[in-house]
Amino acid sequence: MSIIMAVDPGLMSGVVTLDTVSPFTLSTHELDFDQLVVMLDEMDVHGLPDVFVCESYIITPITAKLSRQYDALNIIGMLRYFSVSDNKPLHLQTPASAKGFTNDGKLRYIGWYETGKPHAMDAARHMFLWCTKTGIIKFNDAGLPSFYA
Description:
Strands 3-2-1-4-5 form a five-stranded mixed sheet, with helices on both faces. A two-stranded antiparallel sheet has the order 6-7. It is 44% helix and 23% strand. It is of the alpha/beta class. It has six helices and seven strands; from the N terminus they run βββαβααβαααββ. It has one domain: Nucleotidyltransferase, domain 5 (2-Layer Sandwich).
């Protein structure tokens, strides 16, 4: 695995890409739908990313009343298209799992926190959670995160 993309889908989507080849380069973006399409098309030409991680979005009676977030559903559908057409895995994670596992302090500690990019930071939380689940990030005895290739 080399490039992982995590997405917090919405009207303004947070997108982070992580190159897992040391020195673990993270790029953060906040993109509207059209900008995200362009980014995915450009990455697809090069066979990237290798893995998609995305916040899930489920319409419930409560979310239907609060906000009809068709953008999030459309983006998840687009990621599914690229995942299937390129035979790349897509991992969906709940908002609560990422926010409950990763706080700003952890993102700051590993150098991923950027002020003024709330959607990108939500995507970074999903990236952090997924990297921990897969062993790319491990915690030492003091509970501090470290990268492992």
